[in-house]
């Protein structure tokens, strides 16, 4: 079975916060941050399996502190756990006040990606090898999160069976 170190999927993105990026509270739009998160997580997933990937789920996005125009925002992502064809990617969002240098964890997120072959069919991915304490901790709790994702997906499917597809104006 092929294996890859977590560090091989590690990816960083740093951005400045501009006036067009903020909401009426003068903090970064949550949707803008979510787009950054999905983008960088997809890069980590692709680097891990060296294949095309698709977002299977955004498992969580926890907004922990506001991101202001005086901050830079740095996203760090890496594959933490793998299944057969799926990869869990963790994204850590760190703000830095550009005037004081103070850093804060502003958000965390877990996403799941599936690797695809040339026919857009799921394909087996390499196992992940954690090395640092942070990587080992995230990897050790990955199976539990995968079980929660499976349960949530089953519940969502069951729930969706009761939803209507007719538009209100029809």
What does this structure look like?
With 170 residues, the chain is an alpha+beta fold. It has 3 helices and 7 strands; from the N terminus they run E-E-H-E-E-E-E-E-H-H. It has helices spanning 30-49, 133-140, 142-160; strands at residues 3-5, 11-16, 52-63, 71-82, 86-97, 103-116, 127-129. The strands form 2 sheets. A 5-stranded antiparallel beta sheet has the order 2-4-5-6-3, with helices on both faces. Strand 5 (86-97) and strand 6 (103-116) form a beta hairpin.
Q: What is the element layout, followed by pairings?
A:
Layout lengths: L2 E3 L5 E6 L13 H20 L2 E12 L7 E12 L3 E12 L5 E14 L10 E3 L3 H8 L1 H19 L10
Parallel strand pairs: 1-7
Antiparallel strand pairs: 2-4, 3-6, 4-5, 5-6
Per the principal axes of the C-alpha atoms, what is the gross shape?
Answer: globular
Sheet of most strands: 5 strands, antiparallel
Strand proportion: 35-45%
Instruction: Decide which structural class fits the backbone.
Output: alpha+beta
Structure annotation, total helices: 3
Q: Report low-confidence residues grouped into runs of 5 or more.
A: none
Mean pLDDT: 96
